[in-house]
Design a protein that fits this description.
The chain is mostly beta strands. Helix content is about 0%, strand content about 45%. The strands form five sheets. It has a nine-stranded mixed sheet, with no helix packed on it. A seven-stranded antiparallel sheet has the order 2-3-4-11-6-9-14, with no helix packed on it. A hairpin with a 5-residue loop joins β20 and β21.
Length: about 325
């Protein structure tokens, strides 16, 4: 009989564990024709194929002080892990100089200049770039501008009026948090029954990213674990302590310590335990946080009380074996 939830590492829904992620060697990008950067070294730790082309994270290294201009169409958080990472917001001219432990968030529509000698730990969604090896070296494939892509043109407007914009065009598309990793977390008094004990802070809030992405610090203060069914893409970089992750699909257990990285895909069942502190990035957002007279409360966006839900239909049959021909019906007993 075929198992539809295989164990032993054969399921596509699996934890990815990267030991000593922050110390992984980066590789020079040989072809910079698809990027405005003057020089670049990088490595994707969580690859596009790991996340079904939804999210990517890794280490980036810029070796020169030259400033390079770029316009964003994706969401990105960048944690400076070495050197000086200089950014100028071209919407207002503001200049930020990030050092180890400082965090940037960049939103679609941002035009900025980036430079300085630095290393950064980044996470992006959607994926703007993929990487391939060629006879000439490592080359970027731009995911936005595909050669000869078929495009359907928009219709012309009925008229064009001279009118003042309703919303401020000066809204910043960038957020900078100095000493982000030292930000105190806040104990959660109401976890909606999901976690037993938790303390956290969102550094990049859901409202910052238009409900697309959050990034922050989480602390688990007790050894006792809890089971989690993931409904999102998430990475966790361990900052302190030991996180014990048991993948309930494969049975694999990882003991993650400082500098280790984990990725959890949607649909993953896993058990987390141990005392730890971690930097996390999630997409999409499935939790919001509010302060109440009784303390910090989690709003679970997946399970809203009283939400109107339309049930799915039952299957026509329950198959004990793989179906080979669409006409082979009525053979299975349910």
């Amino acid at each position: 009989m075929v198992s539809y939830l295989p164990r032993g590492g054969t399921s596509p829904i699996r934890t990815k564990f990267v030991k000593s992620a922050l110390y992984t060697s980066v590789r020079k990008v040989d072809d910079l024709s698809s990027t405005p950067l003057d020089a670049w070294r990088q490595i994707d730790l969580i690859n596009p194929v790991d996340t079904n082309v939804t999210m990517v994270c890794g280490i980036a290294d810029h070796p020169t002080t030259k400033m390079n201009e770029e316009t964003f169409w994706w969401h990105q958080v960048a944690l400076c892990i070495g050197g000086e990472m200089v950014v100028q917001d071209m919407m207002n001219g503001n200049i930020y100089r990030a050092h180890e432990g400082d965090l940037y968030y960049w939103a679609p529509g941002l035009r900025m200049r980036l430079g300085g000698v630095f290393q950064a730990f980044f996470a992006k969604t959607p994926i703007p770039t993929r990487w391939i090896n060629t006879p000439e070296g490592k080359m970027a494939v731009d995911m936005f501008e595909l050669e000869n892509e078929t495009k359907f043109p928009p219709s012309l407007p009925h008229e064009i009026r001279n009118s003042e914009p309703k919303y401020s065009v000066g809204r910043s598309r960038m957020k900078f948090i100095r000493s982000a990793l030292n930000t105190p977390t806040v104990q959660v008094s109401d976890t909606a029954g999901i976690m037993n004990a938790w303390s956290q802070i969102d550094l990049v809030n859901a409202i910052d990213s238009d409900l697309v992405l959050v990034a922050g610090i989480a602390e688990h203060p007790i050894e006792e674990g809890y089971v989690c069914l993931h409904r999102r893409h998430q990475i966790a970089l361990i900052l302190d302590g030991e996180m014990i992750n048991e993948d309930l699909h494969s049975g694999e257990v990882y003991r993650a310590t400082k500098g280790d990285l984990l990725y959890w895909p949607p649909g993953l069942n896993h058990r987390l335990s141990g005392k730890f502190k971690a930097y996390f990035v999630q997409t999409p957002t499935n939790r919001r946080w509010i302060m109440t007279p009784d303390g910090k409360k989690m709003i679970d966006l997946v399970n809203l009380e009283g939400e109107i839900l339309n049930p799915g239909s039952d299957p026509d049959e329950i198959g004990a074996e793989p179906l080979i021909d669409a006409c082979n019906i009525g053979k299975y007993s349910g």
